[in-house]
Structure formats: structure tokens, C-alpha cells
Amino acid sequence: MTTSLARTQKYAVSKTMAIVPYLTPEEVRQIADAAKASRKGDRDSLLVILLFQTGLRISEALSLTPRHIGRYEGLPVLRIKGKGKKNRLVACPESLANRLRSYAYEHKLGNQDRFFAINRCTAFQIVQKAGEKAGINKPVNPCLFRHSDAIYRLRETGNPKALQFHLGHSSTVMIRRYLSTLTVEDALRIQQQIKFDE
After folding, report:
1. Would you kindly state where each structural domain of the chain is located, as residue ranges?
2. pTM over the 0.85 mark
3. Closest of 55, 110, 44 to residue 88, by C-alpha
4. Burial degree of 99 (CB within 10 A; 0-12, 13-18, 19+)
5. How many CB atoms lie within 10 A of CB 104?
6. Taking a C-beta distance cutoff of 8 angstroms, is the pair 111, 104 a contact?
7. Which pLDDT value is given to residue 2?
8. What is the assigned CATH class of domain 22-192?
9. C-alpha to C-alpha distance for 99 and 115, rounded to whole angstroms
């Protein structure tokens, strides 16, 4: 085995074992509230909520238009083109789907108009400033909301395969990193949700 290959494998293993930083739902609420106080508060707080409740990559969130909101088997979803231009369905809470539709109506967005007509740099600045204003003492960026959504979903469901589909990951490496954040208490709570017929 060559030295560079061994180094690459060692890095991949150490990265897999590294704990993923994340936000609690309360911290996300604080950031969304801080974003709401900005000049474009409706847009900025909607971006924060969207990133957390859907786990979208920032590129996916910035390309989102009203035509992407749909239903699948009666449930609200976002129909997007993910990484590698692959079509995927992303779970979207009903309240968020309604908020997106209301925002599109109030701002007279056409079916093809983007909800967030900003670039990646501006999106990073929006969430970073909101995080600072909210007093969050960790670096806040769009990826942190994706990680937070993933960890929250995993703690609620205990289902790594469903999470992999939700996030659009082709590999399980990142899912294994998310699994490392689960505690014994999380595992017990998830297991106790299983019901047996008596």
C-alpha cells in the first residue's frame, strides 16, 4: 500500500469518527428570530427554517421555486434536483409548505421564480449574522442546519436508511458520523416507541 493511499484511508476513517457539530431546535428558533429582525426578515427567517426542517444543501435551497412544492401519497414534499442532477423527494412539513406558498403569494413569485434570489455568499452571510445576533457560540453556516436536521431526525426515528434517502447521500459515511451523536438515552427512547400486541 502506498503512503499516500494509507494517509487518505487514515483521514477518511478519522473524519468518519469525528463528532458532527449541530444546533438544537431551540437554537434554530433563536437564529430564525434573529434573522426575522433583519431588513429582509421574512426571506431570511424562511431560509433558516427551510434549511433546518428539510436538510437541503444550500445550492438546493437557493434553486427552490414554487413549482418544486408538491405532494407524494398525500404528504407535502419538495421535488428537487439534488447533487449530480438526481431527482429526489424531500419531506417538507405541512406548515413549512404553507409558509412557502404564502411567501410566494405575498411576494408575487411566479412558478419559476426562486424563493431566495441570492447567491451562496449572501446566504452564508445571512445565517452567520443571524447566529451571531442570536448569541450562538458556534460557527453558524448553512451546512450546520443540514447536520442539525439529520441528527434531529435520527434521534426521533433511529432509522439511518430513511435518513440517507432524505439527505440524498449515495454513501453511508456521513450517516455513520451522524450515528455517533446518538446517546444511550436516545437509543432507549427510540426502542420504547416500538409497540407490541399483547
Report:
1. 22-192
2. no
3. 55
4. middle
5. 18
6. no
7. 60
8. mainly alpha
9. 11
Alpha-carbon Rg for the chain in angstroms: 18
d(CA 31, CA 135): 9
Partners of 91 in the β-ladder: 77
Ramachandran sector of residue 65 (left: φ over 0; alpha: ψ -120 to 50; beta: rest): beta
What's the confidence (pLDDT) of residue 12? Answer: 45
Which grid cell is 86? 438526481
Given a cut of 70, the residues of the chain with pLDDT beneath it are 1-18, 194-198
Q: What is the pLDDT of residue 32?
A: 98
pLDDT at 17: 52
> CB under 8 Å to 81, separation ≥6 — which residues?
60, 63, 87, 88
pLDDT of 13? 44
Q: What is the pLDDT of residues 104-132, one digit of tens each?
A: 999 999 999 999 999 999 999 999 999 99
Per-residue model confidence as pLDDT tens digits over 64-76: 999 999 999 999 9
